[in-house]
Write a structure and sequence with these properties.
Blueprint: H1 6-17, E1 21-23, E2 46-55, E3 60-69, E4 77-86, H2 97-114, E5 125-129, H3 131-134, H4 138-153, E6 164-166, H5 169-183, E7 196-200, E8 204-209, H6 214-219, E9 225-230, E10 233-243, H7 247-255, E11 267-270, E12 278-283, E13 286-292, H8 300-311, E14 326-330, H9 331-338, H10 352-367
Parallel strand pairs: 2-5, 5-6, 7-14, 11-13
Antiparallel strand pairs: 1-9, 2-3, 3-4, 7-8, 8-10, 9-10, 12-13
Helix pairs in contact: 1-5, 2-4, 7-8
């Protein structure tokens, strides 16, 4: 089943309106973004708002969330969302940071129209940038973020410390997990029965789940585990982001083009492509020529071997995940919809072998 990219930023807003997440070993970037005074857990029923900006590589999106806390001590319930977006993303304004920030200013008007004026001063506004800004030179990314902070500072909304920053892959994994389990009700009853999350982006992919077996904890690299307390429960998550294994970056790696600087007319070839194919693709501002193998094998098996060479020895594979349930989204969802494996609106339930079967069917269609 699929969930939208915006769901991750919904969980950021939950954190914003109710400061209920704390890290056991070290402070996480999202801890303290929302002040507890904004959402006193023992207060009477009240309506709360949160403004989240998702600054991605292809566009900037705003999510204005409305929450209602009906009973003292209970989690706030999502009552509504207003969404809008602009293109291109902030990274397109790498040399015009003020112009980039102006796109955020325009979206703030959406928030003003959606939130009662009486709530403006106590409604937090947060912007989190992802891979688009991570790929920029640090000084240029900072210049963009500085201009966004200035826009926020001049706005009538509450601007918490650390409200404008760049997320790393692990943060995305953790928040995706919290989001899905919050929305499916897994966290409301303080249960430890949860689902894992799989997020396939363009440059990286994240896997996050709550281990149920001690063996998993013992065999997992230390850097893959994180513990935190949330809503009076403690969770020890397995989470890892594989940089370079996102859909587009992995495609380049399979072609042998990931770390090339200049292509100079060179055509990258793969057994994963039709023998007759000759095409161009622009990624990260670089134009690549690619095509199928003119000599040698093409088809599923040689293609699988090419991909295996890219990932072999670089993946940690806990046995436990074979028996777990996961929510997969982003490019997992897109590719499943594109190949008619799931419904665009309803999503669906798939197994790993369903993706393999569809890949074989697709390759057979042009090999024979």
């Amino acid at each position: 089943m699929a969930t939208s990219r915006g769901a991750v930023f919904f969980m950021l807003a939950v954190s914003c309106v109710c400061s209920a997440v704390s890290h056991r070993d070290q402070q996480t970037w999202f801890e303290g973004i929302f002040l507890s005074s904004m959402c006193p857990i023992n207060a009477s029923a009240s309506t709360l708002y949160g403004i989240m900006f998702d600054a991605g590589s292809t566009g900037t999106r705003i999510h204005v969330y409305t929450f209602v806390q009906k009973m003292p001590g209970q989690l706030p319930i999502l009552e509504g969302e207003v969404f809008d977006s602009v293109k291109p993303g902030l990274s397109a304004f790498v040399d015009q940071p003020k112009q980039g920030a102006e796109t955020v200013q325009g979206l703030l008007e959406v928030a003003k129209d959606s939130i009662p004026r009486s709530h403006w001063k106590k409604t937090p506004v947060v912007l989190k940038a992802t891979a688009g800004l991570r790929l920029l030179p640090e000084h240029k990314a900072k210049a963009l973020l500085f201009e966004v902070k200035e826009i926020f500072r001049k706005s009538p909304f509450l601007v918490p410390k650390g409200s404008v920053s760049i997320m790393d892959g692990s943060d995305e994994g953790i928040l995706a997990w919290v989001t899905v389990n919050f929305l499916t009700g897994q966290l409301h009853d303080h249960r430890q029965e949860t689902v894992g999350t799989l997020d396939l982006g363009g440059a990286s992919t994240q896997i996050t789940f709550l281990p149920q077996f001690e063996k998993t904890l013992e065999q997992t690299p230390r850097g893959y585990l994180t513990s935190f307390e949330m809503f009076n429960s403690t969770y020890k998550l397995y989470t890892h982001s594989y940089l370079g294994f996102g859909l587009k970056a992995a495609r380049l790696a399979t072609l042998g083009a990931l770390e090339t600087e200049g292509t100079d007319g060179h055509t990258f070839r793969s057994a994963c492509l039709p023998r007759w194919l000759e095409a161009e693709w622009i990624f990260g501002g670089v134009k690549y020529q690619y095509g199928g193998n003119q000599e040698g094998e093409v088809g599923f098996d040689p293609c699988y071997a090419e991909v295996l060479r890219v990932v072999q020895g670089k993946l940690h594979q806990p046995e436990e995940v074979q028996r777990g349930s996961f929510y997969a989204f982003s490019y997992y969802y897109d590719r499943a919809v594109d190949t008619d494996m799931i419904d665009y609106e309803k999503g669906g339930i798939l197994k790993v072998e369903d993706f393999e079967r569809k890949a074989r069917e697709h390759i057979i269609s042009w090999v024979y």
